[in-house]
From TrEMBL, chain C:
<protein>
    <submittedName>
        <fullName>Response regulator</fullName>
    </submittedName>
</protein>
<dbReference type="InterPro" id="IPR011006">
    <property type="entry name" value="CheY-like_superfamily"/>
</dbReference>
<dbReference type="GO" id="GO:0000976">
    <property type="term" value="F:transcription cis-regulatory region binding"/>
</dbReference>
<dbReference type="GO" id="GO:0000156">
    <property type="term" value="F:phosphorelay response regulator activity"/>
</dbReference>
<keyword id="KW-0805">Transcription regulation</keyword>
<keyword id="KW-0597">Phosphoprotein</keyword>
<keyword id="KW-0238">DNA-binding</keyword>
<dbReference type="GO" id="GO:0006355">
    <property type="term" value="P:regulation of DNA-templated transcription"/>
</dbReference>
<dbReference type="InterPro" id="IPR001789">
    <property type="entry name" value="Sig_transdc_resp-reg_receiver"/>
</dbReference>
<keyword id="KW-0804">Transcription</keyword>
<dbReference type="Pfam" id="PF00072">
    <property type="entry name" value="Response_reg"/>
</dbReference>
<feature type="modified residue" description="4-aspartylphosphate">
    <location>
        <position position="55"/>
    </location>
</feature>
<feature type="domain" description="Response regulatory">
    <location>
        <begin position="6"/>
        <end position="120"/>
    </location>
</feature>
<dbReference type="GO" id="GO:0005829">
    <property type="term" value="C:cytosol"/>
</dbReference>
<dbReference type="InterPro" id="IPR039420">
    <property type="entry name" value="WalR-like"/>
</dbReference>
<keyword id="KW-0902">Two-component regulatory system</keyword>
<dbReference type="GO" id="GO:0032993">
    <property type="term" value="C:protein-DNA complex"/>
</dbReference>
Length: 373, 515, 125
């Protein structure tokens, strides 16, 4: 055997360099493939053992949490429960991972339960040390660890961490920033939204949707800052302010809409018109004529026609009729017809002389009058 | 060290070319795949980390969610259409409509739809922004529970025409284009819309998603309930191929914003832009790739600062052919489609005006997707020739082929490893080992076959004139599995891996694949 | 006749199912669970429940479809929708399809108890 290996060794040694390189590479590849397979298989058993551990912890902790959440407990019982949980998750090797499992479990309950159960879960979260872990992650973690920590803290309503979280609302990393903004609204309500006053980074639509969803929980309150936000240099803040106005019925800054109808950003224009409709701001109707003439953007034009249908009177009906008869673009004719229908002006929609309407116009009128669509 | 006879200058030149192909080109290909692989891993991890705390509920109940139209063209799908539409109607998204286009089916597709969903014709004013075959009727349901369903009955015009008709009827700001027979994950629309909503700097024009293989998976009521590795070896090969291509290739290209193809099986598009650039091309068999390329071109030429996104989650499941002959036809078509698109947009080639697309993506496609199989086939022919003539150093060559084989296998296993640490779909140990075995056989069996298909595809395209749908054959698109979802991108390191890239369906093949 | 009211909980999340079962058993009800709409229908066919608590977003048969099917079949038991969807459209749709009550997650377990009591009282009349 030994001689054989020596033979091979000398054989290889005698080869040209390029042979050596290729043979070396082939062997290296095969070895690395074998290593990867073994890693995959090891990974599998690791995953299995984690899952088993997770199941065990859940099985043991669940009844304790249920007991805490659903029954009246005095302080000593609560302490006992915490001790029990601590004993379950305690482990030299797996403590971190166990705490993660516990964290997800409590978060899960918290997302689904409210009322008194809510408060008890929050206490548990603090007492068991999960809040401390989240705070450490927030201070020292990588971006995704930070973002997750902020998300956890806000889900668990750890109000006392608000000030620390507020520091991150204009953070450089988009994900950290987004989570911090979301947490601010969740924990601090409309007051904490003042971070929008001088926000420089753009807010994505996704973020706006999330913040809106959170803001809707303080419905029908007055948000004083909307004024400055509408004047912000950051267009995404303006758009978000408009969305808030529209969905939270913020009538007090309606006057500002008039100016925004002429905004250089067409998305802002469109949103401003939509908001004007929602807030029944019919005072701006004269401006809408101007906007209609000034803009080339079909979406803005369509929105104007819609607004006329929603807010206008007989004068606007005349304008819509005009568009219906002579409009070229399908979208505009359609919007005009819909506007007329919305006004209840079926008389206008059907009262045409022969050949006054193009075939397209007629089809669109039929379409609009068909309530099944 | 030269071991051949130098008298013959032709053989001389051939040998030079041969050496260049085998050594230079192969090493180049290997390195490219390695780079793509590394980028993909980084990106997939980043994506997964972000998703540990993403909550889709906010958007699911938002009044501000942008409107989406799901476009589902159907031709002779009576067997499955009801089930498929049902699963489309249960997609999770707050603001969407489903537009089913019956492209002149000759079976009872329409009747079945009318009965099941209590449809009645309405006075729909179709906006023919894109010219299509005549729309006969537009139907809506009498049942308010289905008020987001629109069924369009039109004269037969092929898949592109059907998609264009759907575009004309749609009201959404975005369109989700799918193959009706695919099985979608419930939250696929939420996940595909997220990149659009998250983008703040650029104009996102389209987003593609990952297509996975459904053969042998347990499916209940239009939903995947258990993921399995296919039983048939041929489908296992394709599983590996799809994994490499979607998990490695496309994720990397997506992050580099270099995707040239959004599969017709799953993609979200900004509708306005699709219409502005003229909708789907009727004359090509690779309409999905053609559209992606044309949209990018259009956006660039109009000075729009755009981006194309990609979502690495498994979102869509499809059956792949389990018979060699169906697969051959599919790959043949894919090849023709890719060639056609590449030729009709040859302006892009190394044109700095188009940025990365012109300088990187297009040349990559040209070199790796189109020419690779040809070069490889050429190389093999030369190899056989030279061995017969005995003019080259065969022993080193065999060693080199062993290297290529080793690289291919290692790359495949690396893919399985990445799948394991990211999306982890194949949970059974035995099935994983079956994939490893398939990976060992694949370079010897599947790969040469794919090369052969690509070569014949080129032959058919250039010499048989099978360019487009062909007017006589234009009757619709074939059955699902036959269509195949395109894939491309990363691949193995065989000297030139023809990553099957190519267009969907064609009309000419109407065979039902064995499923 | 047993005076314990029977409640069926339909939710695809095991944790919620368990938690609810724990709470309602404690409140003195006879509790049964199902993990999706289809299983719920099977159970309802073989047994009579006094009240059904259902999630909306579930695989196969959603809560909406479940209510629709139950009401079409003329099941007497009131249905309470318990869901994380809190959009207006979801509420409207639920009541439109025949749901008797609607609660959103996160929900207060105590509030749920009260609502169940109320629903039971009304349905006995």
């Amino acid at each position: 055997m030994r001689e054989f290996l020596i033979d091979i060794y000398y054989f290889l040694l005698a080869l040209e360099p390029r042979y050596k390189i290729v043979i070396f590479l082939v062997i290296a590849l095969l070895i690395s493939a074998a290593i990867m397979i073994s890693i995959v298989l090891r990974e599998r058993s690791r995953k299995n053992s984690i899952e088993a551990r997770e199941r065990r912890i859940k099985r043991q902790v669940e009844p304790i949490i249920q007991e805490i959440v659903f029954t009246e407990q005095d302080a000593s019982q609560f302490k006992d429960a915490i001790k029990k949980i601590n004993r379950i998750v305690d482990s030299t090797l797996y403590r971190r991972s166990n705490m993660n499992i516990l964290n997800e479990l409590i978060l899960y309950y918290h997302r689904n339960l409210g009322g008194e159960a809510f408060t008890r879960l929050e206490n548990l979260y603090r007492e068991i040390g999960l809040k401390q872990i989240a705070l450490e992650n927030l201070r020292n973690g990588e971006w995704h660890v930070r973002a997750k920590a902020i998300n956890d803290l806000s889900t668990m309503r750890m109000g006392e961490t608000l000030f620390e979280i507020l520091q991150y609302t204009d953070a450089e990393n988009m994900h950290v920033r987004n989570e911090a903004q979301y947490a601010a609204v969740k924990l601090g309500g409309k007051k904490a939204m003042s971070f929008l006053n001088d926000l420089e980074s753009p807010m994505s639509e996704w973020q706006q949707i999330r913040l809106l969803d959170q803001s809707r929980k303080f419905e029908y309150e007055l948000i004083d800052h909307i004024g400055p936000w509408l004047r912000s240099k950051n267009d995404t803040v303006v758009i978000f302010a408009l969305i808030l106005m529209r969905h939270l019925n913020q009538y007090h800054e309606r006057e500002q809409l008039r100016k925004l109808l002429y905004h250089r950003n067409e998305k802002v224009q469109e949103k401003a018109i939509e908001t004007a409709i929602e807030l029944a701001y019919s005072e701006c109707i004269e401006n809408l004529y101007e906007v209609y003439e000034l803009t080339k953007n079909l979406r803005v034009k369509t929105a104007v026609l819609k607004a006329m249908g929603e807010l206008g009177g007989s004068k606007e009906a005349g304008h819509l009729r005009e568009v219906l008869v002579s409009g070229k673009e399908y979208e505009l004719v359609m919007a005009a017809a819909k506007g007329l229908k919305r006004m209840g002006r079926h008389d206008v929609l059907t009262g045409y002389r022969e050949n006054e309407l193009s075939e397209k116009g007629e089809n669109i009128v039929k379409h609009v009058l068909d309530d099944r669509i | 060290m030269i071991e051949y006879d130098t008298q013959n200058s032709l053989v001389d030149i051939l040998i030079y070319i041969f050496y260049f192909i085998t050594y230079g080109y192969t090493v180049f290909v290997m390195i490219s795949y390695l780079i793509l692989g590394v980028i993909s891993v980084v990106q997939a991890r980043k994506y997964l980390r972000r998703n540990t705390y993403t909550d889709y509920l906010n958007i699911l109940q938002s009044p501000e969610a942008p409107s989406v139209s799901i476009l589902a063209p159907a031709y002779n799908e009576e067997a499955t259409i009801i089930e498929n539409i049902r699963s489309l109607l249960s997609v999770r998204y707050p603001n969407y409509e489903v537009i089913v286009v019956n492209d002149g089916s000759r079976d009872r597709s329409l009747t079945k739809l009318i009965e099941e969903y209590q449809l009645e014709p309405v006075n729909f004013a179709v906006n023919y922004k894109i010219e299509t075959k005549k729309v006969k009727n537009v139907y809506k349901s009498k049942d308010p529970a289905y008020n987001n369903l629109v069924v369009v009955d039109k004269e037969n015009g092929g898949k592109s025409d059907a998609l264009n008709a759907a575009l004309n009827v749609s009201t959404g700001d975005y369109t989700l284009n799918i193959d009706v027979d695919c099985i979608l994950e419930e939250d696929c629309l939420l996940k595909l819309m997220k990149p659009f909503l998250e983008e703040t700097d650029k104009n996102m024009i389209a987003t593609g998603g990952v297509v996975r293989i459904a053969n042998n998976c347990r499916i209940e009521k239009g939903r995947i309930v258990e993921v399995n590795v296919p039983n048939k070896l041929l489908a296992q090969f394709q599983t590996l191929e799809y994994l490499r291509s979607f998990l490695l290739g496309r994720v990397a290209w997506g992050s580099l914003d270099g995707l040239l193809l959004i599969s017709g099986a799953l993609g979200v598009f900004q509708k306005q832009l699709v219409i502005q650039c003229g909708g789907y091309d009727n004359e090509t068999i690779g309409e999905d790739m053609e559209l992606t390329v044309r949209m990018r071109r259009y956006a660039r030429e109009k000075g729009i600062d755009y981006v194309v996104g990609f979502v690495p989650d498994p979102l869509c499941w499809t059956e792949v052919p389990e018979s060699w002959s169906v697969l051959r036809r599919q790959r043949n078509r894919w090849t023709r489609g890719a060639v056609e698109t590449l030729l009709s947009h040859k302006r892009l080639f190394l044109n700095p005006f188009y940025g990365k697309i012109g300088m990187v993506s297009y040349p990559y496609w040209l070199l790796f997707e189109w020419l690779a199989p040809l070069i490889e086939a050429f190389g093999i022919v030369l190899l056989v020739l030279f061995s017969l003539l005995g003019v080259i150093n065969i022993s080193f060559l065999y060693l080199f082929i062993a290297l290529i084989y080793g690289y291919t296998v290692a790359f495949t296993i690396a893919t399985l490893y990445i799948e394991e640490i990211t999306f982890f779909q194949y949970k059974k140990r035995r099935q994983l080992l079956r994939l490893v075995i398939a990976g060992l056989i694949e370079p010897l069996m599947f790969h040469p076959f794919v090369v052969y298909c690509a070569v014949t595809g080129n032959w058919d395209y250039f010499f048989e004139g099978k360019k487009a749908w062909g007017s006589m054959k234009r009757v619709g698109f074939s059955r699902p599995t036959d269509r195949g979802k395109r894939i491309t991108g990363g691949g193995k390191g065989k000297k030139n891996k023809p990553n099957p890239a190519a267009p969907l369906p064609s009309n000419n093949v109407r065979t039902r694949p064995a499923t | 006749m047993s005076d314990k009211a029977k409640i069926l909980i339909v939710d695809d999340e095991p944790l919620i199912r368990d938690a609810l079962a724990f709470k309602l058993t404690k409140d003195g009800y006879d509790v049964d669970t199902a993990e999706d709409g289809e299983k719920a229908i099977q159970k309802i066919e073989s047994e009579e429940y006094h009240i059904i608590i259902s999630d909306i977003m579930m695989p196969f048969i959603s809560g909406f479809e479940l209510v629709k099917i139950l009401k079409e079949r003329g099941t007497d038991a009131p249905v309470l929708m318990l869901t994380s969807l809190n959009s207006e459209t979801a509420v409207l749709k639920a009541f439109d399809l025949g749901a008797d009550d609607f609660m959103t997650k996160p929900f207060s377990p105590n509030e749920l108890s009260v609502r169940i009591k109320k629903l039971l009282k009304n349905s006995k009349k």
